[in-house]
Amino acid sequence: MTGTVVVAVAAPLWVTAEAARAGADFDPASFPSYRAWLRELMGRHRTLRGRLDSVALRGEPVRVLDRPGDGVVTVELPEQPNGRSGYVGHVRAAHLGPDRRRAVTHVVAPANGPAAGLAAGSTVQLLGPPVGGAAPVLLPSGERTTCPAAALRPLGPPAPAPELLRIATGFLGVPYVWGGTDDAGIDCSGLVHLAARIGGHRVPRDAHLQWADTRIDADWGDLRPGDLLFFGAGASLDGIDHVGLYAGGGRMLHAPEEGRAVTLEPLSDRARRRAVAFGRLATAA
User: Fold this and answer.
1) Is the whole model's pTM more than 0.85, yes or no?
2) Is 34 left (phi over 0), alpha (psi -120 to 50) or beta?
3) Which residues, other chains included, contact 53 with Cβ-Cβ below 8 Å and sequence gap of 6+?
4) Which residues are 72's β-sheet partners?
5) Could you read off the pLDDT of 20-43 as tens digits, one per residue?
6) Beta strand 228-232 with 240-248: parallel, antiparallel or unpaired?
7) Using alpha carbons only, what angle is made at residue 110 by residues 75 and 187, rounded to the nearest 5 degrees?
8) Quick count: other Cβ atoms within 10 Å of Cβ 237?
9) What dihedral angle (degrees, nearest 10) is formed by the CA atoms of 76, 77, 81, 83?
10) Which of 137, 282, 122, 269 is nearest to 202 (CA)?
11) Could you tell me which residues are beta bridge partners of residue 186?
12) Cβ atoms of residues 179 and 55 within 8 Å
């Protein structure tokens, strides 16, 4: 294959080139795992608001827009829609490289465990049948490794709503991280975006744009498991500030806020009062 992709376990998308440069001596590759790096990063900063915009995953295509220097590149992430373009920000050049796979066949679902070294949402090329539950795969860097076969989802048509909810449930217990887009740390819109992306849907990265893309005219009694719940000051691009997935039975699956983790919980009276709109993916059934 051709094109530039993320070849590291993940590529943090920093808001400014200065923030990316500041991380030059604080690279995920220098830690035992990406999760260990993220824990250390959160220990240094009480919040990543204003620092981290999103995270690009292994195998994710990037469009290089500029090279400010000092090992930093300005990129667009086409698979993370943000209005008329993909998310734009700054990453370390060392996290990018040519795609050495012949084809992309599977995406890693959140059933994956930390030992596999592949974040949920990473894409791979399957090389053969699994042996003892482990499937041989080719990473975008050209490295061969194995991944739990149960964690691999073939690329294909968009999944129906129940399957999307099942995918999202795999993120239960993942800590809330502002800008997080993987199973080491995730925010509310990142949870919806990544679950949908693993399920074959193209969904914007941010909650207010997810509302604009999926909104439906419905009441509480019309909701199906896998529908989206939007919260905020009003049903508008400026008013939406949170999103979750309706899990049926009056429950919601969401990444609540900093200091908490992805949870499945009953919709409280306060949550029902703050709900301003509902959404449904067009091909979900």
Assistant:
1) yes
2) alpha
3) 13, 14, 15, 87, 89, 179
4) 69, 92
5) 887 655 666 677 677 787 788 777
6) antiparallel
7) 55
8) 12
9) -10
10) 282
11) 176, 181
12) yes
Which amino acid makes up residue 1? M
Extract the tokens encoding 73: 């590149």
Amino acid at 228: L
Residues 24 and 18: beta-carbon distance below 8 Å: no
- For the stretch 244-270, pLDDT in tens is 999 999 999 999 999 999 999 999 999
Q: At what angle do helices 207-214 and 188-198 cross, to 10 degrees?
A: 50
Amino acid identity, residue 197? R
CA distance 17 to 141: 25
- Give every CB contact of residue 180 below 8 A, 6+ residues apart in sequence: 38, 52, 55, 186, 187, 190
Ordered by start, the domain boundaries in the chain are 4-96, 106-154, 161-279
Strands in 134-138's sheet, in edge-to-edge order, are 144-148, 134-138, 123-126, 106-108, 152-154
Phi, psi of 143 (to 5 degrees): -75, 140
CATH of 161-279, one of 3.40.50.1820, 3.40.50.970, 2.60.40.10, 3.90.1720.10: 3.90.1720.10
Phi, psi angles (nearest 5°) of residue 18 = -65, -40
Strand partners, 107: 123, 153
Give the pair of three-digit tokens for residue 102: 């012949």
